[in-house]
Amino acid sequence: MGGLILSAPGSASGKTTLTLGILRALKQRGVAVRSAKSGPDYIDPRFHAAASGTECLNLDAWAMTPERIRSLAAGSGTLLIEGAMGLFDGAPPDGKGATADLARILNLPVVLILDVSHQAQSVAAVAKGFATLDPDVQIAGIILNKVGSPRHERMVRLALAPLGIPVLGAVHRQTGLQTPSRHLGLVQAAEHPDLEAFLDQSAAIVAETIDLDGLAALTAPLGTAPSNAKPLPPPAQRLAIAADAAFAFAYPHLLQDWRDSGAELSFFSPLADEAPPDCDMVILPGGYPELHAGRLAANGRFLTGLRNARAIYGECGGYMMLGDGLVDASGTRHRMAGLLRLETSFAKRKLHLGYRNLSPLGGPWAAALKAHEFHYATTLTAAGTPLFDATDAEGTALPPMGLREGTVTGSFAHVIDRVAA
Prior knowledge:
By secondary structure, the chain is of the alpha/beta class. It has helices spanning 15-28, 44-52, 66-73, 99-106, 123-132, 150-160, 195-209, 212-217, 252-260, 293-298, 300-307, 317-321; strands at 2-7, 33-38, 57-59, 78-82, 110-115, 139-147, 167-172, 181-182, 185-186, 220-221, 238-242, 264-268, 281-284, 312-315, 325-327, 333-335, 341-345, 352-360, 369-375, 378-383, 388-391, 397-401, 403-405, 408-411, 414-418.
């Protein structure tokens, strides 16, 4: 049992689709396979989980210590890690958090997925550059994607042959394997119109075009979990966590941390107008409340239960739900819970993206945190006491983040892990 990383020179190379096909194909073969996603991502891991039948974890080399990453990666079965962006792409200024960092930390080989749709022999220069840039990152195999024809494939294979890197397969251009997308990435797995058929189709193509035995032979052993990896303590003992299409962005590793710490976790659906179960704290994760704002605004049992909660913590979409109002993309304002003096809007979208270092100014967190921000909402008003002091990945000071009003707290930041002591 071991691990392997699937990466590429850049985004839109087909990493996710091929990873899903490989996961489903290995599962169909009876292989005990599990997966992880590099970096902060809530969408792809849900597709991974559907393809493999096991929970997909996030491994974040910017926010997590090497010990934490090794602890999460340890386990039985074959681990496939899907990279993010390009292999060496990470946070400014030096690329920390890149997929290549996971390769170094876990000592795992990389299979490079090359989109050859606009190249022929020149692809050899790309492959050679990636193979030789860092001697600590091993390019152990190549998968050709978006090949135009048998002649095109032959040209590319001949060009790559002198490098001595095994070409594990060539996937020709396919129709029907593109996944629908929206402004934060893919449509969620639960919303895919025919996910199982899509995964089975991907697996059939992969099984026909990729040497899965050769791929499995490249995996390298994973070490045992280190004993000094420190999880993030739960923000309360009894947690009620919103979980549906509007609030789906909860990291599995944090939920498991809290279970392992003895916290009691229960789940409820705001979209189904369920009130939070009796608890010490309600957690509203991020998601897409802007797509369901009218329905959420009309769900009386949910809103009454939320307003009567002992304490609440909201992230991104959950934070917007706690405000006074949310303006959707059409310009319609919807009344939210009214627990924070916050008005947000999607009528004029603005990208906010990047890692965040957070220092709590109160609220449920006792120590400094590593987090990520990714949203297109515009803040119209935000009045009150901030929740965090914040800096970006380079340590540059940012305006204070979030709000706190009594035991109601929230911000646009998605907490990933604690800062190493």
